[in-house]
Specification:
43% of the residues lie in helices and 14% in strands. The protein has 17 helices and 13 strands. A hairpin with a 6-residue loop joins strand 4 and strand 5.
Amino acid sequence: MNPQAVGLNAQLEVEGPIALKLLSEKGRNIFFPHQGIVGQGLDAKNKAINASIGEGKDDNGDPLCLSSISDLLKIHPAEAFSYASSFGKTALRDHWAKSLRKKNPSLGNTSISHPVVTNAITHGLSVAGYLFVNEGDEILLPHHYWGNYRLIFSEAYGAKLKTFETFEGKGPGARFNLSGLQDAMMLEGEKKILLLNFPNNPTGYTPAFEESDAIVDIVRSAAKAGKNILIIADDAYFGLVYQSGIDGESLFARLASIHENVVACKVDGATKEDYVWGFRVGFITFAGKGLNSKALAVLEDKAAGRVRGSISNDSHLSQSLLLTAYNQPSYKVEKARIYNILKSRYTAVVTELAKHPEYQEQFSPLPFNSGYFMCVELSCGDAEAVRQKLLANYDTGVIALGHLVRIAYSSLPEAQIPKLFENLFLACREVARSSHPHNP
């Protein structure tokens, strides 16, 4: 093991032993190479003669760049063409750290790590997997989950995705399956990794306040029972909550300081929060009652080490553009305008389903109150057949997930929402009749 990794682990053993227990073998071995090329480059940064950095510079020290690209930008070339730090742009990390506290007042004065910039949510989750998941480890999560988790955690790190039913009950009146979560947390085994994604993809569900309280109580009880727990909060759709009575904060904030046996890891980003899907800027942040500032700094180093060892660093241009936007006086107004468009589409979906009780003959909506999506459970049970029928006969595209159809109303003009559900109803009826040709 590299001496720098040994040093980091020794620090964790003293300052945050719960994190050391939860780290994977890869996580124990990873480190940020402060003594390598990057560190030596920082040492030389302000020297009159600097031959340390692998960038092309003009005679004034600015990046050599193509004018056909630089002419498209309104920011200085150094803010776009130069390498960013593997930790991320410092001013952007500062802004995100402050915004986490504003958006999650339950954090209070809880210590959190300085966010490390990742290549959006997928890469952030992969960094978490690298740090904490050994081959054969179980990851507990609701059975309605983002399919990319299989590639991120199972295929890359050999994790076993162990699911529990997402909801108790059926239809729009169902609620999050708290008893299923509790049973999963208390299964045999000392190490528990719990992955929660709210607003949930694919269902578009966020727990109500009382459900969030119960989730926190379940995790605390498991920790008191001797479980060593990592919580991964996938907050890809954070802030997109459309109903009152729903917990608009991240569960990270509620779980960040509940017990010495719990480490919380928040993976989030600008992708959906700021509607910049192609920018690929995300963040990974850590907290835990058993972690002091030195332990949190070790986790930052390990996360940045993994960034360095996978993508080197995230896009400097994307980070600079975001930071510029955050400092614009119009930022909050612009963001509110897009949020209101999405909320209006959500309301249109709710209204359309309420107007047509006959749709219940063919499909029933799962609970939804937030995010980009909602799902319907098909009476015929064959979502792929319905999807194909919609493509062939109704010029309509949806996502088939077993017996569910996922609808991304976020991408639909509001005027198309009634037609979408009419087409879905007709396609379901066609599939049902073809499966039972003697039924009227």
